[in-house]
Amino acid sequence: MHSDASLTFSPSSATRRALLGLAGGAGLLLLAGCDKVAGTSAPPPKLAFQGVDVTGAEYARNFRLPDQDGRERTLADFKGKAVVVFFGFTQCPDVCPTTMVELADIKRQLGADGDRLQVLFITVDPERDTPEVLKAYVGNFDPSFVALRPASPEQLAAVAKDYKVYYKKVEGKTPSSYTMDHSAGSYLYDPQGRLRVYERYGAGGQALLGDLKALLA
Asked: Closest Cα partner for 96 from 210, 191, 179?
């Protein structure tokens, strides 16, 4: 009659090492699975920008606005492209057209990478900037540019607050001749949709071009 002890499995040293290796590998796989579930990802690479590096900022992370064709848009629609967001209005006499011309020129200078650049123009004057007006305006600079129009004063206020954008209506001689004061910087996103750079107005096209090249590299 055999004792219970004779039925006990006692692995060799080599076997024990193999079992420990399998256990360790399973642990690593489990940790990797936990990372995926938690949605963690590596931080974006550190780059030398000429504009203000705002990587990791807690603002201007997304939007949900109708475009010039009435289609609701978010940053996710442009994943895979470097995105430039600029706030302005179509009757702006200098800052807005200067910036848009600059961006159209930068797209041309990027050559083949120009197809990986998306410019978004968000109006701070939806009262006068109808979808038809916006479509003609951005198309005049580049047919790929997209205009976004807040559907209500409340939606405009909300997106401006999220982007820390200043805007104010300045009354004119007649009710329709008012103008708009507004922030004039541009927000740059990498192809993964992460805010990376705040480009001040007047920094120059070469600075903006250099930062976009870095994001597209």
From this structure: 179
Judge if pTM exceeds 0.90: no
pLDDT range class, residue 68, cuts 50, 70, 90? very high
> Burial code of 13-45, b = ≥16 C-beta within 10 A, e = fewer?
eeeeeeeeeeeeeeeeeeeeeeeeeeeeeeeee
Count of all residues that appear for the chain in the document: 217
Q: How far apart are CA 9 and CA 51, in angstroms?
A: 67
Cβ burial 134-166 (10 Å sphere, 16+ → b, else e): beebbeebbeebbbbbbeeeebbeebbeebebe
pLDDT band at 44 (very low <50, low <70, confident <90, very high): confident
Let me know: does 187 contact 92? Beta carbons within 8 Å.
no
CA distance 117 to 84: 8
Give 143-168 pLDDT, tens digit per residue. Answer: 999 999 999 999 999 999 999 999 99
Tokens 């895979």 map to which residue?
Answer: 80
C-beta of residue 169 within 8 angstroms of C-beta of residue 180: yes
pLDDT of 22 above 50: no
Residue carrying structure tokens 């200043």: 166
Structure tokens belonging to residue 11: 């692995």
The Cα–Cα gap between 162 and 166 comes to 11
**CB distance 109 to 118 below 8 Å:** no
